[in-house]
Amino acid sequence: MKKVLILLLMSLFFCGFHLNAQKYITKEGHIEIFSKNPLFTIEALNKKVASILDFGNGDIVATTLVRSFKFHEALVEDHFNENYMESEKFPKASFKGKITNIKDVDLKKDGDYKITIKGTLTMHGETNPVDATGTIIIKDGKVTGKTQFNVSLAAYKIRVEESYKKSINDEIRLSVTFDYAPMTN
C-alpha cells in the first residue's frame, strides 16, 4: 500500500510539473499600432505587454496599460490618450482567447508553426471578437509568437473628431510579438 501511495504522489508531482511546464509567459511583449493615409501616419510601440500562453490547451491572455503606447511626437501621444482612448477612464486593454491548433506546435522541434487565434479584445470599454492567423517560432528552445490584425475604431466606440476624420483611418493595424519564457512557480 505504501508503494502505491508513493507512486501515486510521484505521478501527481510529475503531472503537475508537466502541466506547469506547458505555460509560457512574457512581461515585455510588443504591440505596434500603425495606420497610414495620404494626410497622416499613426505609429506607436508598446513594450510592456504581459501575456501567458498555455501550450496544454491553447489558452492565451494578454494585457497592457493603454498609456504604455509611445509615439514619436508627444502631442500625438497626448491626443491618443486623452481624446481617443480616454486612458484615464479605460486604462487597460486585454485579449483573452485560444490558439485553436496548438497541438500542431512541437515545442521540442525548431520551426515556424502557423497558428489560428480566436478570442476577444477588450479596449475602450468595448469587447469584440478577434479571429487572426499568426506564427509561433521555436528556435533553440525559445518561443516567439507573432500575429497581425486590424481593429476598427468604430467597433470600439473610439470617437474621431470631425476635423480629423479624413486624417485618421477607421482600421488600425496591430502587430504583436511575444518572446515567451517557461513559467516557473
Question: How would you sum up the global shape?
Answer: elongated
Instruction: Supply the number of structural domains.
Output: 1
Task: Return the CATH class.
Answer: Mainly Beta
Question: Which structural category fits the helices and strands?
Answer: alpha+beta
Biggest sheet character: 8 strands, antiparallel, barrel
Unreliable stretches: 1-20
Instruction: Determine the CATH superfamily.
Output: Lipid/polyisoprenoid-binding, YceI-like
Number of helices: 2
How are helices and strands ordered from N to C? HEEEEHEEEEE
Short account of what is shown:
This protein has 185 residues and is of the alpha+beta class. The chain is built from two helices and nine strands. The protein has a single domain, classed as Beta Barrel (Lipocalin).
Explain this structure to me?
The protein is of the alpha+beta class and 185 residues long. An eight-stranded antiparallel β-barrel has the order 1-2-3-5-6-7-8-9. It is built from two helices and nine strands; from the N terminus they run αββββαβββββ. The two termini are 31 Å apart. 17% of the residues lie in helices and 51% in strands. 17% of the residues are buried. It is elongated and about 55 Å long. The chain has one domain: Lipid/polyisoprenoid-binding, YceI-like (Lipocalin).
